[in-house]
Amino acid sequence: MTEPSFEPVNMQGPVCPVPHHHTDTIVIGHGSGGAMTQDLIRNIFQSHLGNAYLEQGNDAARIALTNQGGEIAISTDSHVVSPLFFPGGDIGRLAVCGTVNDVAMLGAIPAFLTAGFILEEGLPMETLERVIASMAEACHEANVKIVAGDTKVAEKGKADGIFINTAGFGMIPQGRNLGGQLARPGDAVLISGSLGDHGIAVLQARGDLGFESAIQSDVAPLNHMLNDLVSQFPDVHVLRDPTRGGLATTLKEIACQSQVSIRLQETAIPIKPDVQTACEMLGFDPLYLANEGKAIVILPEERADQALDILRKHPYGTMATRIGSVSSRNPEQVLLQTAFGTTRILDLLAGEILPRIC
Amino acid sequence: MSEKTTAGYLAGYRNAKLVRAVLGKIHQVVTQPWALMEICGGQTHAIMQYGLDQLLPPEIELVHGPGCPVCVTSLELIDQALWIAKQPDVIFTSFGDMLRVPGSREDLFSVRASGGQVRVVYAPMDAVKIARENPDKQVVFFAIGFETTAPANAMAVIQAEKLGLKNFSILPANVLVPPAMHAILGSPNNRIQGFLAAGHVCAIMGYWEYPPIAEKYSTPMAVTGFEPLDLVNGILQTVQMLEEGRVAVENAYSRVVTYEGNPIAQKMLKQVFIPVDRNWRGIGTIPLSGYGLNQDYQDFDATNRFDIGTIQTEESKVCIAGKILQGLKKPYQCPAFGTLCTPQTPLGAPMVSSEGACAAHYRYGRTTND
Lengths: 358, 370
What we know:
The complex is a heterodimer of chains A (358) and B (370). With 358 residues, chain A is of the alpha+beta class. Chain A has helices spanning 35-49, 91-104, 125-142, 197-205, 223-232, 246-258, 273-282, 304-312; strands at residues 61-64, 71-79, 85-86, 89-90, 109-120, 145-154, 162-172, 188-191, 238-240, 261-265, 296-299, 321-327, 334-337, 343-346. Chain A folds into 2 domains: 64-172, CATH 3.30.1330.10; 180-346, Alpha-Beta Complex (Phosphoribosyl-aminoimidazole Synthetase, Chain A, domain 2). A 7-stranded mixed sheet of chain A has the order 9-11-8-12-10-13-14. In chain A, strands 1-2-7-5-6 form a 5-stranded mixed sheet, covered by helices on one side. In chain A, a hairpin with a 6-residue loop joins β1 (61-64) and β2 (71-79). Chain A is globular, with a radius of gyration of 22 Å. The model of chain A is unreliable at 1-19 (pLDDT under 50). In chain B, strands 2-1-7-8-9 form a 5-stranded parallel sheet. The chains are: A alpha+beta (358), B alpha/beta (370). Chains A and B meet through α1, α7 and β14 of A and α1, α2, α5, α8 and β11 of B.
């Protein structure tokens, strides 16, 4: 190798790239569930469609039925996943569980779903049937019925196999009042199980990670477990499923909605060794990976231990644990205390999760 | 991350008791202020992620180095990459981090949104695979990185040649650490007194290149790893040398790094690359600080394969990225930090990559009132 010249370089001084905010076109980050998605919702959807229900800002809308005096929860969710089948689940199970869980997060009992399908020309019938059978199984497990549906076929290349939209609704039993705006200082923060399983399982199924593991998606309907919890403790303040954007983004949203801070103990957060290893290799933070079968539970401190007992009795809650608490100081912040006693801030996921180079 | 949840062998290197013991020694040893630079962006991130800077004595200042290959890739190269990615019948492949880095007017995300075929790969050989599977497309790999990724980039070129692939090329953008150290230490504004040398760069290159640099600028260095225990050990060894008035290069990452480095990787680098002058974003041109393809592999240089012509580049002058990359300013000293400039709306390259110093500060360090 030639010996480099060791003259001091002529420093250019401050230089900087022009910002690209992606306000002109949709880019993939707008669907990441993080800050870009929030901007899109605020600037486009809420600015045109805004109303009191939409502005509740929860996983489902809470609507009063004027005649009967009851209340219902309504939610909708579209599902785009590649590949359609991944370890632990498939797009069909995802489409049912995603909406069932969103409805259940308001303390409602999900009852009915609708399903809209966009199918790509050339999709093997057998593939469709496998997906629908999986939806049926998930509906059976969640005890919900699909009561209306729609099918459209897009030209080859205009869709990716199957896109599914589901909407769901359920009754909210009297006395249950849950929402992201209701976290209170002193509350305990629980998580129903390990984080990041779904995100890594799907990435792995794409086959481009270059390694294999036994990680399974956690996709599951949580309504029975959560109903057991809320029937016993109607004073649960917040239920939220940390899907896209992960635990960190979801807690940040809650901290902002409730004007509180949330303090987490890093050592208490359950992450499976395989998921941890995959994250180490790819430079991902498991706290930002998607989950499809986990619930964040925020409730009065004195209920925490009994709540954990209830969650742990369910197959989807065996690893339930307490990960933090709610405080009135530093509102809108999520603070993570590390194993070293230091603190770091968790913010919204910025855009698409990108693997790091080294 | 907890011992309970950390996979396998890394747990020991994250053991809070062991780390505290070393931190205790640092507190004992230090008697005066020292400015150390960690050269690698991976180290910056680990320091912020674990909050190690919060545990150091106030005398020790960690200055973040230019060691994020994403941040320092020149605007010219990024604009060239964007130009190539927009061509029909091109599949442009890149490490994920590069997609968000702004060129003069757009980034790879916007190119993808407007129909360009941009694919994230996890290894350069994935790009070779894509080239084999798509014989009717030109597949270009954005070969960025320090010496750490350079052998894998070289391997992709060697394999593509062996396979007789006529549709594979790279955009050579690798940068080299020792010339950057010279540039920083030789700058009239330099205030760095000790270096944490980048462990993974040294795993490839060894550290035989460093003693002459340490001596020339009277700056001790410790080859340092990326786990909390590695980092505090590297800091301790550097501070000990400084306090004793000793100038040497010590290896605080001996489980991975040898003096000679990896001879097979170095041989591959020599086979494929030749040092060339390279422009570092925010710093300027540093002589012989990058890898270009040598005479034998010119066919695999995307800039030869495509008629890119001259691109007018244009940097905004809002942020102080250059000063941050040189370690002259801290991210929070920038007026735009955390307000106008966030990972979502980056004004400067260090905010863009997850390894960039500003992104690390924003994510892990934005000071709280606690």
